[in-house]
Amino acid sequence: MNAALELHGVTRRYGATQVLRGVDLRVAQGERHALIGPNGAGKSTLFDLISGRARPDDGRIVANGIDITGEPPQRVARTLARSFQTTSVFGGLSVLDNLRCAALGASSSGFLDRWLPSRKIDARAHAMLDAIGLAERACELAARLTYAEQRALDLGIALATDAPLILLDEPTAGMNRAEATRALALIRATTEGRTLLVIEHDMDAVFSLADRISVLVRGRVIATGTPAAIRANRDVRQAYLGGVAP
Prior knowledge:
Elements: E1 3-14, E2 17-28, E3 32-36, H1 43-50, E4 58-63, E5 66-67, H2 73-76, E6 80-82, H3 95-107, H4 119-131, H5 147-160, E7 165-169, H6 177-190, E8 195-199, H7 203-209, E9 212-217, E10 220-225, H8 227-232, H9 234-239
Parallel strand pairs: 3-8, 3-9, 6-7, 7-8
Antiparallel strand pairs: 1-2, 1-4, 4-5, 9-10
């Protein structure tokens, strides 16, 4: 299967501290791939490099066959979309206008086309409203949504860009069990057919969602495999899962 994302020997230093130490990673097209590891392992730094918010010191990043190493975020955004650990919605805009902004940004590469009224943009925004279950809150200011609803809107914003590769950074963080269960169901339903790379600390969520899992420890990927293989991996258990099989 073709790769949606490939990392080859990616490194990143901050002063004397080496955060990433030659990361190799391959995510197949259409795969739901989880990236797990202890705090400080370099997971969010890796997302920053992939999404263009920071540049790697060494190595290559290829998304859907395009070398995006060191490209700025506005160029990388044509290939992938990312959500963050904390909600990043525009609180002063309505729920619908948040989604319109995302759809507008992906609608065309031409400057003039971006400013023309588009039924396609509205249709995409309304379709995403339905998909994330916020159609009844369309005219509500995003700041007035609950935390779980804002996280759902974050997902909708990422999906409304129509990017083939989606990066989600701890999508269930701060949610109670019921909210997290609903969020996972939403992610499964709305990312069907797309490639997903997700950072998540909730192991129940990881093992129920991911097709494959990569484990990052001290800036290196120490294992990649199916959920069953990762559960059984002795190095992973010792480094991250508490020393015993869950």
